[in-house]
Every structure is written in C-alpha cells, then in structure tokens.
Amino acid sequence: MKDKIAQLKENIRGIVAANPNLPIDGIVTKIEGDTCSVKLADGFEISDIRLKATADGENNFLIIPKINSRVLMLSADGTIGNLTMIKCDVAEKIIFNENGLNVEIDSTEGKIKVENDETSFTDLFQQLVDLLKTLKVFTPVGPSGIPLPDSILKIEKFETDFKTILK
Predict the structure, then answer these.
(1) DSSP secondary structure code for residue 153 in this structure
(2) Cβ-based burial of 143 (10 A; exposed 0-12, middle 13-18, buried ≥19)
(3) Are residues 132 and 73 in the same domain?
(4) What's the structural domain count of the chain?
C-alpha cells in the first residue's frame, strides 16, 4: 500500500496530466532581445532561452537577467528546445508596457523611466523646473522678478537630482 503523500502526488499528476519537469539551473552568457543563452553546470551552452512566455519581440513584461547571473529555466513540454527563464538572481533591466503605460527599471544606468502616451515623469519634472525658474507673483508694485539666486541654485539642484534617477 502506498503512503498517503505518494498517492496524493500520483492523484495530482493524474488530474493535471503533469510529468515531473524540474527547473534547470544555469548561468547567463548572452542576451539577444527577449531570449538568452545559458551555460549549464556541465559546460553545455543552450541558446534561444525565452525570457518570457513568448519570444515575439514585444516587451509587454520582460525581465532581462545580468550576464553571469544564475537563472532557473523550465520547459513547457519537457524538451530542451522549449526552455523559458522562470527566475533570475540578478535582473539588469525590467520592462513593462501595457495600454500605453511604459515602465523601465535599468540597473546598468541606475535610472527608471515612467511614461504613458501623454507624458513622462521626466517631462513633468522638467516642466516644474522651468516653471519655478521663471515664476513671478503679483505684488503691490506689480509683478515680481524671477526667483533670487539662492532659489535658482536650489531649483537647479532639484533638476540635476531628478535627472540622475529618471530617464
């Protein structure tokens, strides 16, 4: 008589028609669009590993691993020609594009980009800087002049700072 855990595993396999398909471990050697090449522990190198479910050139959701980082891969049909990365230790870039929203996190540049079909964070912050540099207010003797030099320095520092993190 089988033990309960073995019987449960067998029942689950029967229900979902799953065969054991364990993740394969490897090191990324090359990135090409939405695929990569991976070297296995025995030195064998496999190319055309999908970085997302479908290697179609679209970047709806793409995680690009760093070269020489460790990844786990799984094959949908158990063959080596149908491997997809399911996890990576170090992501170099993450891209999300859907319904006009575009988000990119780029660790090589240390910057992020957030935009939609109308505008971007970078454009909004630049508009704010431009507005602050020329801001005038009404006074009892007429419109004021542009901000004082110490205020301009603070505005310029803000501009420099946001440009170091936003694309």
Answers:
(1) H
(2) exposed
(3) no
(4) 2
